[in-house]
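Predict structure. Input: DUF1236 domain-containing protein, 133 residues.
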Amino acid sequence: MKKSLLILCTIVAPLAATPVLANDGTVTGAAGGAVTGAVVGGPVGAAVGGVVGAIAGTALNPPPREVVTYVRDRPVPTAEPVIIRDEVRVGTRLPREVVLSPVPESPAYSYAIVNKERVIVDPQTYVVVGVVH
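Output follows.
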């Protein structure tokens, strides 16, 4: 039992500390977590990795292509530029003071221009889910 617990902790700790990135062409969510867990720790790792991946992967799925196109094509707002100290990347939580602009056809997404970057944001959590270049 102690050995199983040690193996489980050895598997979960690195997975929980790994940054979550949403990229096209990657396996995310439960499937990605299960694959990673299986490679690291066999069947037990697959089960644990699937749970961790499901929790992390669903939070940062990349936005649909239509949302990216909408944000890319919008004119730059005339409001004061928003500058934050942190690097803006997928997974960054923006301060609540950042004013978000809604994406009309996709209410699950908003956008802002932060540090001169167009970012797509989950309006509920203020977490960046995409950076438009």
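The chain has two domains: 2-59, 65-132.
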